[in-house]
């Protein structure tokens, strides 16, 4: 299967449309893509390609620095600076763990700044949280990285917002389906994802992948993986990657075939996360994917995870439960709980 056989969604018409009616065609295409693959390419998002290239090139420059330079912003929990217990900061090759095995990548994790209401003892919408308190650790070098990434994150938040709005329309949540109206239905309109991401607890990972040395087959017990198979945690991932082919692989619905999701210049690779699967009661799946980089160069990617608010309670939407014809797949919990559970198993 060629990489470009994953669907391509062009968001420009949706962004420029004046009515929901005009936005329906894009929404239909998104519904199809999320139902069939859980993955698609996104074009027409409005972020200039020159900006995307700069983001990749700054990441590449950072990873090329000597280790002691990179360790200046070592993750708090791994002996980084005082004043935080966060999962934020630089992690060396093999520090990240997926499915109990070390991943052959290095990375910096940035999160939305913690909202403690300006007080030590919590009080903000996030309360206190040992794992994620603390500030982002920004590299001193390359010098422009911080400023460029701040601007880029603001642009990505706009794209994420447009995308989850489109997803709400894609699920046709405004259409009354049955006469069994309860109070719960009041919140099931097409803006339900927009409301629950208003203070999106986003994550941005800046990742560097050295070439793997192990010749073992990807499925062998002891195979080295750049990033083991996993699903993403929240709503939608906007992945920017350098042009390296054959590295990111997506599991087909058949549960056996791995498809290459090679980059298309200027486009994001988008996939949905666990909270979107839960909301849709499995109508849309958070599809498994993995990275195996055996190419010659040093690969760089920068996924941005546009997630629900930390305290958002996510449970299957009634309309999706009905449509799926299945029992609710989850009783409901906050996105924050899901995230913390994941982070716990993520580090060596
Ligand atoms: N914030 C997100 N989604 N990060 C995805 C990281 C995936 C790998 C991680 N070690 C894991 O096992 O999940
Ligand atoms: O680098 C990639 O292509 C994907 C990385 C990824 O799946 C993740 O960080 O969640
Ligand atoms: Fe992922």
Automatic annotation (TrEMBL):
<keyword id="KW-0560">Oxidoreductase</keyword>
<dbReference type="GO" id="GO:0051213">
    <property type="term" value="F:dioxygenase activity"/>
</dbReference>
<dbReference type="InterPro" id="IPR050231">
    <property type="entry name" value="Iron_ascorbate_oxido_reductase"/>
</dbReference>
<dbReference type="GO" id="GO:0046872">
    <property type="term" value="F:metal ion binding"/>
</dbReference>
<dbReference type="GO" id="GO:0044283">
    <property type="term" value="P:small molecule biosynthetic process"/>
</dbReference>
<keyword id="KW-0408">Iron</keyword>
<comment type="similarity">
    <text>Belongs to the iron/ascorbate-dependent oxidoreductase family.</text>
</comment>
<feature type="domain" description="Fe2OG dioxygenase">
    <location>
        <begin position="200"/>
        <end position="308"/>
    </location>
</feature>
<keyword id="KW-0479">Metal-binding</keyword>
<dbReference type="InterPro" id="IPR027443">
    <property type="entry name" value="IPNS-like_sf"/>
</dbReference>
<dbReference type="Pfam" id="PF14226">
    <property type="entry name" value="DIOX_N"/>
</dbReference>
<dbReference type="InterPro" id="IPR005123">
    <property type="entry name" value="Oxoglu/Fe-dep_dioxygenase_dom"/>
</dbReference>
<dbReference type="InterPro" id="IPR026992">
    <property type="entry name" value="DIOX_N"/>
</dbReference>
<keyword id="KW-0223">Dioxygenase</keyword>
<protein>
    <submittedName>
        <fullName>Naringenin,2-oxoglutarate 3-dioxygenase</fullName>
    </submittedName>
</protein>
<dbReference type="Pfam" id="PF03171">
    <property type="entry name" value="2OG-FeII_Oxy"/>
</dbReference>
<dbReference type="InterPro" id="IPR044861">
    <property type="entry name" value="IPNS-like_FE2OG_OXY"/>
</dbReference>
């Amino acid at each position: 299967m060629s990489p470009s056989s994953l669907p391509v969604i062009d968001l420009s018409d949706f962004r420029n449309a004046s009515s929901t009616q005009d936005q329906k065609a894009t929404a239909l295409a998104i519904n199809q893509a999320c139902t069939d693959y859980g993955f698609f390419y996104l074009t027409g998002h409005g972020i200039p390609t020159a900006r995307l290239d700069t983001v990749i090139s700054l990441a590449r420059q950072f990873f090329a620095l000597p280790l002691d330079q990179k360790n200046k912003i070592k993750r708090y929990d791994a002996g980084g600076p005082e004043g935080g217990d966060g999962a934020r900061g630089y992690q060396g090759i093999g520090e990240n763990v997926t499915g109990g095995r070390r991943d052959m990548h290095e990375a910096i994790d940035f999160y939305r700044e913690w909202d403690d209401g300006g007080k030590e003892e919590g009080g903000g919408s996030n309360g206190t949280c040992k794992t994620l308190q603390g500030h982002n650790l920004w590299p001193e070098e390359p010098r422009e990285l911080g400023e460029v990434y701040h601007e880029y994150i603001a642009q990505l938040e706009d794209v994420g917002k447009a995308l989850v709005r489109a997803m709400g329309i894609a699920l046709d949540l405004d259409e009354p389906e049955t006469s069994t109206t309860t109070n719960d239905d009041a919140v099931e309109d097409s803006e339900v994802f927009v409301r629950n991401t208003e203070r999106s607890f986003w994550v941005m990972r800046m990742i560097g992948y050295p070439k793997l040395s192990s010749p073992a087959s990807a499925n062998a017990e002891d195979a080295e993986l750049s990033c083991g198979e996993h699903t993403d945690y929240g709503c939608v991932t906007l992945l920017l990657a350098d042009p390296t082919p054959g590295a990111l692989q997506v599991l087909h619905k058949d549960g056996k075939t791995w498809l290459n999701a090679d980059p298309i210049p200027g486009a994001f690779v988008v996939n949905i996360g666990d909270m979107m699967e839960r909301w849709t009661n499995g109508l849309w799946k958070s599809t498994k994917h993995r990275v195996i980089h055996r190419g010659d160069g040093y690969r760089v990617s920068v996924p941005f995870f546009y997630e629900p608010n930390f305290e958002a309670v996510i449970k299957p939407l009634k309309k999706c439960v009905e449509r799926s014809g299945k029992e609710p797949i989850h009783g409901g919990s906050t996105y924050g709980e899901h995230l913390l559970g994941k982070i716990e198993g993520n580090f060596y």
